[in-house]
Amino acid sequence: MTRYLAQRDNWSCFACCLAxxxxxxxxxxxxxxxxxxxxxxxxxxHPDKRRGILLSEAIIYLAKHQKLMGGYFxxxxxxxxxxSIDDKFAWEYPxxxxxxxxxxxxxxxxGLRHCVYWDGHRVYDPMSPxxxxxxxYDIVEFWPILEITVYx
Length: 152
Prior knowledge:
By secondary structure, the protein is α+β, with helices and mostly antiparallel strands. It is 26% helix and 22% strand.
């Protein structure tokens, strides 16, 4: 069972999802990545201009934990929850039983995105300890997390 982790600030949702995906404490993610994402940078899309954890850093972090972040299912011009039921089936079916980091529209700030962890059966939202389903969110991207078996 996934251990819930709450984000401590408004820029650590992605890091919390990585920690939940690998069943570690948030500090371990920061130590492995080499920073906590709090640096302020000009190029950030975050309202506070926080750096956060980059996708490239997440991919490397997950690989170090024998996990692979698959290519995402997504629709940048509209949330997946707004597309037709026939199109929704194309991503809902593989989502069942497949852990993922899911980018959703923020429930608290218009125009912003937020990350939640999907364990294949339920959502763990770093902003809310209430367990919910994918259908409760406006999904923008679905990034599957796959186990890697290493043979020697």
